[in-house]
Amino acid sequence: MLAEIIRQKIIKEGPISFRDFMDMCLYFPGCGYYTSSKEQIGKTGDYYTSSSISEVFGAMIAKQVEEMWNALGRRSFTLVEFGAGQGLLCHDILDYLKEQNSNLYSQLRYCIIEKSPVMRQRQKNHLLEKVIWYNSIGELGEIEGCIISNEVVDNFPVHQVSMEDELKEVFVDYNKGFIEVLRPAGVALINYLKELDVSLPRGFRTEINLDAVEWLKEIGAGLKRGYILTIDYGGSSPDLYNERRKRGTLVCFHNHTVNEYPYDAIGAQDITAHVNFSALSHWGRKNGLSSYALINQAEFLLALGFKEYLRKNVQGNDLMLSVKKEAFLTQTLLLDMGMKFKVLIQEKGDMHVDLLGLKFAKQQTSIQFP
After folding, report:
1. What residues are paired with 150 via a beta bridge?
2. For position 315, what pLDDT does the model report?
3. Is residue 219 assigned to a domain?
4. Residue 121: its pLDDT value, please?
5. How far apart are the C-alpha atoms of 258 and 251, rounded to whole Å?
6. pLDDT exceeds cutoff 80 at 59
7. Between 205 and which of 23, 162, 303, 305 could a Cys-Cys bridge form, CB atoms 3.0 to 4.6 Å apart?
């Protein structure tokens, strides 16, 4: 049904940008990937997230939040989560804080920014206290606390561009099927690359996430004092605009398989693109946000005591089962996902405290970015 809706839109209005096509595929009311009744996460979905694998991930995030609360003066604290999925991360953070830090828990306001009615209802089914839902961060007023996005920015709809004799943007047309056409890129796309000092070679195709730029503007306007914690897969500009990425980073997830065909299974598969953390840092600075560091998720979790917490909390009556579970979570969260996902922490308010989760950030294994 969604494919037909998009087809009729193109027939009526002409070719649409890939950005608008991706937005409709993911978020069209009622039949987009994230707005339909389809399960996205877990065994019956299309992919796993760190929070869907174990509550230990949420506990480590909560430990970092505790430290941020201390840095802000141990008073009323707002935690904002964008796109909370099934609400598992929120659930695990609240569980940890309720048990380990009742003082912070009593002063905590947990806000979820969720534009999908379906996802919001799933979250409400098991998040029974402390949580308030909003449509945008602008509804919250001034914020002192932390803003979290875990595997969210990669799902912002992106523009696709290709360097020909000049920078061209990819549009989607229809002729017995969806086809791509190139048109001269607009000023905003050209300036995006200029601001990052990126020159694409001829034939290079990539993505530009202008929605992330607007997202940072909203955060910069809403955050009075505090932190931004972004966890996602991606890299810096030198990584994303290098020869091995000349076809771009756009991929789709469907039934736990990966493909590069966004024009198939429309509305039934996830479409994602790698996050440019150099861009988040650059436009963060332009909106009053200073960057601490960009590191691998594995470094971040290890610094917060992942292994110690895991050993303490996976023990059970069956020693062999406990050992197997510990090995599985270590392999998955530290090696498989831990090396793929990155953590960027930004701040507003000049706290400049040494955050525990970043204690390995100066090691050579850390990701460097402009």
Report:
1. 231
2. 63
3. yes
4. 93
5. 7
6. yes
7. 162
Report the mean per-residue pLDDT for the chain: 92
How far is Cα of residue 153 from the mean position of the Cα atoms in its chain?
4
d(CA 109, CA 32): 30
The 10 Å Cβ neighbour count of residue 4 is: 9
For residue 109, tell me if it sits in a domain.
Answer: yes
Q: Is the pLDDT of residue 323 over 80?
A: no
pLDDT at position 228 over 60: yes
Number of domains within the chain: 1
What was the pLDDT predicted at 48? 85
**Backbone φ and ψ of 138, nearest 5°:** -65, -20
CA distance 307 to 343: 18
Q: Does 291 reside within a domain?
A: yes
Query: String of b and e for 132-142 (b: at least 16 CB within 10 Å)?
Result: eeeeebeebee
Residue 317's CATH number: 3.40.50.12710
Cα 233–chain centre separation: 8
Residue 37 DSSP symbol: S
Report the helix count and the strand count for the chain, using DSSP H and E. 15, 16
Which domain does 293 fall in, by range?
50-157+207-358
On whether residue 92 sits in a domain, the answer given is: yes
